[in-house]
Amino acid sequence: MRDRAATRALVLGLLALPFGLFAPFAIFSGARSLRRIRASGGELHGAASAIGGLVAGLIGLITLAAGTGYWFLGS
C-alpha cells in the first residue's frame, strides 16, 4: 500500500519550487512519510515520492531564503 503522505510531500514539494511558502510543509510531510515507510517493515511504499518531495521542499526553502536575503540586501 502506498503512503498518502508521500504523495502529499511530492505535490507540496513541486508547489514549493515556484511558491516557497509550501517548502516547510513539504519538508515536514516528506520526513514524516519516510519515517512511517521505514517503520512499516515493507508494508508501505512511496519512499521515492517522499524523498522527491523532501528534496524539492529543501530546494524551495533555500531559494526562498536566498531570494529574501537578496531582497533585503538589495533594497
Structure description:
This protein is mainly alpha-helical. It has helices at 4-16, 23-39, 47-74. The chain has one domain (4-74). The protein is built from three helices and no strands. Helix 2 packs antiparallel against helix 3 (47-74). The longest helix is centred in the C-terminal third of the chain and has 28 residues, at 47-74. It starts with a helix and ends with a helix. 35% of the residues are buried.
What labels describe this entry?
elongated, mainly alpha, 75 residues, single chain
As a percent range, the share of helical residues equals over 70%
| Number of separate domains | 1
What share of residues are in beta strands? under 5%
| Largest β-sheet summary | none
Instruction: Write the element-wise H/E pattern from the N-terminal end onward.
Output: HHH
Q: Structural class of the helix and strand makeup?
A: mainly alpha
Evaluate the radius of gyration. 14 Å
Using DSSP, what is the number of strands? Answer: 0
Shape: elongated
Average pLDDT confidence is 95
Low-pLDDT residue spans: none
The end-to-end distance, rounded to whole angstroms, is 50 Å
Please report the number of helical segments. Answer: 3
